[in-house]
Amino acid sequence: MRIKPSQSRPSVTVVGSAVALVAATCGVFVIMRPATVAPVEHATVAAIASPSPTTLPRSTPSSKSAERADLKPDPRTSLEPYTFGPPFEIDDGLTFGPEKAVRTRLSGLTGPRRDAVCRDQDDRLWACGLQARAALNNLIAKRQVRCTPTAPSDSVVPARCVTDGGDLGRHLVELGYARSEVDYPTEMDKARAAKAGMWNGGWRLR
What we know:
Distance between the termini: 121 Å
Strand content: 15-25%
Low-confidence stretches: 1-69
CATH class of the largest domain: Mainly Beta
Shape: globular
Structural class: alpha+beta
Largest sheet: 7 strands, mixed
Order of helices and strands: EEEHEEEEEEHEEEHHE
């Protein structure tokens, strides 16, 4: 049977790896194997941007130094009681305060400097200054501290301080990291007898 040639140009269909080219010439089918097919280049597809939600202004958190710039009332000029809380900066076993704020020193007490080294009863060296700071930190950590100045000061304020756990000075004397013959003589005698804290070596600094 003779196929009547079509007046329109035949289409090219790719099936698998062979290309069937239908030619209208002479009304016959001519099947050709294609030359090496060039790889299809990948088109770059741009992601569709979803509608952006309404941008809310971000609140800039105030720095700790701004939040805790000072104590109110200023204990350097007022003898009124003042209260503060953590986080604390502890300068030594008796001196501390809020971050970036006025320092308070427990008045009427004697204690080791922050990096003091002591000798124990066996004449061994130990970091008594560090231990005194740790003792103070344990007494005030995560607590509110209420202090009453005992004298005006231009810098570090001498004060008596308490927490919900009691008098800070009394506790430090009982632990053996502070001394006071005037305010806490009974507590100091007990600490000395028990060789608590720095009394372990007779309060001997290197």
